[in-house]
Write a structure and sequence with these properties.
The protein is an alpha+beta fold. Helix content is 50%, strand content 15%. The chain is built from eight helices and eight strands. A five-stranded antiparallel sheet has the order 4-3-2-1-5. A three-stranded antiparallel sheet has the order 6-8-7. Helix 7 packs across helix 8.
């Protein structure tokens, strides 16, 4: 049996070189073109991401900077004057602004990163030659299933983002969220933390918040209902209330808390026992309760000094001439 060996020699080397050069020429696009295009895609996406993050950072820094209105409010105001604007403790206001800005910036950065990553993956797969149609269809089905299973979670995050963007409330605000009434300690994308009057900490999902009452924005109002007897002279009552309110406005301890002179709104109601007169005044946020308590104390002293009686139960007792048997009681009206 004879064996034939492949020809070797100088003639075979050019053939091998030609075959390698032909193979390289045929696969030049796969070896050089595709990696270069993929690298170019990655570089472009990284540049876009860097530019977007820089823009987001500038927006966050602009939000963190105090506005001109806040700078003016930081200066001491003249006695007896006050604009109906948001008055808060500057430390709390700064904390609220920082949390709101950084959270929104973090959300925007994450959203940009996710979108660019998905676009980059799709473009790279297209360069490699993988069909995107089946992948997109599968991803759509999976996303639909996840969406149905996580509806409440998505609603919480969207509601939290809108709460921050619209600035409905923030850290340090006094809010009423239904059962949870108190001071806001934290605002996140999914949860809001509220500390109530008794010290309990409420964790409320943002998607379940249907309405918000914020007592800390722009201005508040102290309302005091004063009950006087039916035989009291209402003109005297009005004068006493107005004088008491003006005296409170001129008090150095309260002049910066009141945004206007207290006003007597008039008779609020005619109750069974007396007449209800309403006194009201605009105050800076979160100070209406303290102003109401001080007004109540001063009004009581002023009414006593003016000789205006507070109402007492109006009840008439009729007693028959012949006393009833014990236990039957007297006829009352």
């Amino acid at each position: 049996m004879s064996h034939t060996s492949p020809p070797s020699g100088p003639a075979t080397d050019p053939q091998l070189a030609a075959s390698w050069s032909g193979w390289i020429g045929d696969h030049t696009t796969a070896l050089i073109g595709i990696p270069l295009r993929i690298a170019l895609i990655v570089v472009i996406l990284l540049v876009v991401r860097a530019v977007a993050k820089r823009a987001i950072t500038r927006v966050v820094q602009r939000v963190l900077e105090p506005t001109a209105g806040e700078s003016e409010r930081s200066r001491p105001r003249r006695p007896g004057r006050g604009a109906a604007v948001l008055h808060r403790d500057r430390t709390r206001a700064k904390q609220r602004r920082e949390q709101r800005a950084r959270t929104i910036g973090s959300v925007l950065s994450s959203a940009v990163t996710i979108v660019l990553f998905m676009v980059g993956v799709a473009m790279v797969l297209d360069q490699v030659g993988i069909a995107l149609g089946p992948l997109l269809a599968s991803a759509g089905v999976v996303g639909l299933a996840i969406g149905f299973g996580a509806q409440s979670l998505v609603a919480d995050y969207l509601s939290g983002l809108l709460i921050m963007v619209e600035d409905q409330y923030g850290v340090g605000d006094s809010v009423d969220l239904g059962e949870a009434v108190g001071e806001v300690e934290h605002v996140g994308l999914r949860l809001t933390h509220v500390r109530d009057l008794n010290g309990g900490l409420w964790h409320i999902r943002n998607g379940e918040i249907l309405r918000v009452r914020n007592d800390s924005q722009e201005w508040a109002r102290a309302v005091l209902d004063v009950a006087v007897a039916y035989d009291a002279n209402l003109d005297t009552v009005y004068r006493v209330l107005e004088d008491t309110g003006r005296a409170l406005r001129q008090d150095p301890d309260f002049t910066d808390l009141l945004l206007e002179d207290p006003a007597v709104w008039g008779v609020q109601s005619l109750d069974a026992d007396g007449v209800l007169v309403r006194l009201a005044v605009k105050t800076v946020p979160l100070q209406q309760w303290g102003v109401t308590r001080e007004l109540r104390r001063r009004v009581k002293d002023a009414l006593d000094e003016a000789g205006v009686d507070i109402p007492f139960p109006q009840r008439t007792v009729w007693v028959r001439a012949d006393a009833p048997e014990p236990g039957t009681g007297a006829l009352t009206r």
